[in-house]
Design a protein that fits this description.
heterodimer, A: alpha+beta, 4-stranded antiparallel beta sheet, 1 helix, elongated, B: mainly alpha, 11 helices, globular
């Protein structure tokens, strides 16, 4: 046991605390070592196991989270000729926003012509497509002709003719879809959200603020299309 | 009536009293040795397994542990909750034999298994109503733990594990609600995902993660199905294991209305004397 040059058996050397046994030096010990062989192998083995675990967990997590970073293709869908839409009221059309899942992929959109007489920022040749997805928690709103308002059946959100909130819990106006006219047909494109003053911003989910400092709590997502120029 | 104690491995049996039995685990009522041997058969089987697994000591400690004076029916709520989970697990496995997690076919497959498959309505009913029963039992069990003060030292960790189990149970309810894929399922899920989305900063990305994209899409249902039948049940089983280990390790508490033994040593000695 005296292989390390220290005298052990005669009791003159340091004893390990409390145990009363002579201090044992492990095989391979040398003066000034900072880590025993056993500790080095133990740490190395654990690091190897950790790396192997990360190799499994890492790709699997990215695989599950991939849709967060995946921007879907921009689609445009024709919903009728320009003569079919007027400036004084909305007409409901049904578009497909997700293909391949049947009825669940369709949504109703309310479309009207721009009305420069009433709203000076709108132009006559443009078309306004208002989403039926309530800005509170995403229930389907309905345009009530008699009141000229959009009303949500779930929690009582009410929006005026432009889609601005006039009652209930919604935190921002109704979303809109980009529109364009091709060969006399009105086409509906990607969704975007608007601020309280109807300035376009990147599409947010219902319940998320747009405009003001609260907007910074809900960063834009890479899975949505960029907002159109205002 | 056969002697059921034969089913227990020898270490778990009640020791024979002096003058009783033959010291060999048998009851020594004078039968032919061959009959005695035949009666021993189940014990031999259990004994054979136990000799190789060495579980009887652990099982004895876990199942035959001492419980405090005053233990009552309120102490069965945890077992009742676990039994509700077992019902959900078993019926869920069999529902999965008919269910198709595709947006186009899910509703059809649910209609088929409910109306056409023998006992389908009953098995689906057990899963549907059992879900509510489990949530109610979780909360009653939690209330029992709270009002009995059974969350205090050294059982805080078991309370924390219990809260994790509560959240996992809620996740099961949320993900399972979508699977019938009728109008109620669909809109409840839309609203539920959007509530998740209102969480600051991470909320929007959490919504995208749950929906697998910016809109309710082709793989949303499959994602909810995988979370509902693979991810969360695995986590619940692991957590229940830890929960039960701590219950067996730490023991249960006395009810709050049991008075502590306050008699002083002196007064007892006086009585004895």
């Amino acid at each position: 046991m005296a292989e390390n040059g220290t005298d052990i058996p005669d009791g003159t050397v340091a004893e390990s605390a409390g145990s009363g046994l002579p201090e044992m030096k492990p095989a391979g010990y040398f003066e000034g070592e900072t880590m025993t062989r056993r500790a080095a192998f133990s740490a190395g083995g654990q690091a190897l196991g950790g790396a192997a675990g990360l190799l499994i967990i890492g790709p699997a997590t990215l695989f599950a989270a991939a849709p967060i970073f995946d921007q879907p293709e921009e689609t445009w869908e024709a919903v009728g000729s320009v003569e079919g839409f007027t400036a004084d009221t909305y007409r409901s059309v049904v578009i497909t926003i997700v293909t391949g899942i049947g009825e669940a992929g369709k949504t109703t959109v309310y479309v009207r012509e721009g009305s420069p007489e009433t709203y000076d920022y709108e132009s006559a040749e443009s078309y306004i497509a208002v989403s039926t997805r309530c800005a509170h928690l995403g229930c389907p709103v309905r345009f009530v002709q008699a009141a000229g308002n959009f009303i949500c059946p779930c929690h009582g959100g009410v929006y005026d003719f432009e889609g601005k909130v006039i009652g209930g819990p919604p935190v921002r106006p109704l979303d809109r879809f980009q529109t364009r006219v091709t060969n006399g047909q009105v086409e509906i494109g990607p969704r975007y959200s608007v601020t309280g003053d109807l300035d376009p911003v990147r599409a947010r989910d219902p319940g998320e603020f747009t405009g003001g400092i609260w907007e910074y709590l809900f960063p834009p997502r890479p899975s949505t299309a960029p907002a159109p120029p205002s | 009536m056969p002697d059921l104690s034969k089913l227990l491995p020898p270490p778990m049996r009640r020791p024979a009293k002096p003058g009783e039995g033959n010291g060999n685990g048998g009851n020594g009522n004078g039968n032919h040795p061959a009959i005695e041997k035949a009666k021993e058969a189940p014990a031999d089987l259990v004994g054979w397994v136990d000799e190789r697994m060495g579980m009887s000591g652990f099982m004895t400690g876990a199942l035959l542990r001492k419980v405090p004076k005053g233990t009552n029916w309120f102490y069965t709520l945890g077992s009742a909750t676990m039994f509700a989970f077992v019902v959900q697990a078993v019926t869920g496995v069999f529902l999965a034999m008919y269910y198709v997690p595709s947006p186009v076919e899910a509703y059809e497959s649910i209609t088929y298994l409910t109306n056409e498959v023998f006992m389908g309505e009953f098995v689906r009913g057990m899963h549907k109503w059992g879900a509510s029963v489990m949530v109610i039992l979780v909360f009653v069990h939690m209330a029992r733990t709270f009002f009995f003060g059974a969350y205090k030292y050294p059982r805080e960790l078991n309370w924390v594990i219990g809260v994790v189990l509560l959240i996992l149970t809620m996740t099961m309810g949320f993900t399972g609600y979508l699977l019938p894929f009728d109008q109620r399922s669909y809109w409840a899920t839309i609203v539920g995902v959007n509530i998740n989305g209102t969480g600051p900063v991470v909320g929007p990305y959490l919504s995208d993660f749950l929906r697998a994209g910016p809109e309710f899409g082709a793989t949303t249902l499959a994602r909810f199905y995988a979370i509902h039948m693979l991810l969360v049940p695995g986590a619940i089983i692991a957590m229940i294991g830890a929960h039960l280990y701590l219950v067996a390790k730490l023991g249960t508490t006395v009810p709050p209305w049991m008075r502590a033994e306050t008699k002083s040593k002196a007064s007892r000695e006086k009585k004895v004397g």
